[in-house]
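Example A, followed by Example B.
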Amino acid sequence: MKTILITGANGTIGKILSSGLQGYRILSHDYKGRLQISGDFSTDKGVEQCAQEVLSHTKHLYAVIHTVGEYYEAGLKETDGDRWRALFQNNVVSAALLAKLLQPEVFISFGVEGLLSGGRLMPAYLSVKCALMSLTKSLALTGMRAHMISPRSVEGSEFMRPGVQVKPKEISDLIDSLLRDTSIKGHIIDIPPPIS
């Protein structure tokens, strides 16, 4: 049975995947240490701790599903340098270090709808998600099957926005297909797809 790591398994998407993915041995991560794997991703040491714990459970990790990424909504004037750095660490540096230390076959991260459009109330958050998208594409160029999923708004999430809600099953079904299909890599996927 293939082993996968779900980071942020206590968050909305992490919970969806922990219960919705079948046929895998799942290692669940929570930064507070309430689950099998711990590690505070606000520091490099915390990411390294997570990787060490994972490797104590398995010699070969098939996939990382990286749902960690502190959400932050505020305008440019309200966002100081410390917040920019913290968002970059939690969203991008943590992903890069996990990919480097664990070398999974598959690495799936999460973006946000409207990533390339910018946003008056989320310049820092959208900027770090763009950096994560670039990292995802770079990982795919190394041969890793790396993907980014950008859901609009997830049904049941604490950050629900008006409009179309993505159902939990849509997310777990999409992730399952990406885990099983070895022919695709480097996809940035919006759900639901943008209206053209």
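Example B, a separate protein, is given below in the same form.
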Amino acid sequence: MSLEAIVDKILKDAREKASHIDREKKAQIQSIQSECEETVRALREASSKRAEKLAEDQKKRLISMAELDIRKEVLGLKQEMIETAFEKAVTQLLEGDTERYSALLKKLIFDANLEGDEELILNQKDRERMGDGFIGELNETFLKAGKKGKLRLSRESRPIRGGVILRRGRKEVNCSIESIIYSKRDALEATVARILFPDKKKGK
């Protein structure tokens, strides 16, 4: 074989080998590109799902926070309405008919389990509107019950909204309206709440 033939053969083999290598590299590159595209696609899907989940979680958090704020606001409004109901009841009691209020005071005093010789302390307004006959009627009631009929109205007045403070020596019993309402507030509040805000589910 001539030198030219040998060179041609070498060149031909080199071209074929190069062509084969080129085809292999292209195939590898194409395979790598396909894998990369698949990976990118998977990442995009995962990212999209993650983003959707994050968005859904954020939505749930916002709804939960909004519901909590609404519940707090409703609770605040309910408390305000209950407070208003109590205040209205006390106001009507204190500013209502004098005869009914006098009867209430007498009941408060008689139910306080007194000896019958205590001193009654009222606010200035009640001192003026009860009159002298109020103490006389009380003492008659105590005498009929077998107790001392020596109750007396103190010259002192106290800044209470209504009711009475009973004093015997150094001992005082607070029967003011606000004190009585406060002592029964917890028990009364549940009843008032049921009246103001009936449970609609039970009515169904």
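On Example B: The helical segments are 3-95, 98-110, 124-130, 132-144, 177-183, 185-196, 200-203.
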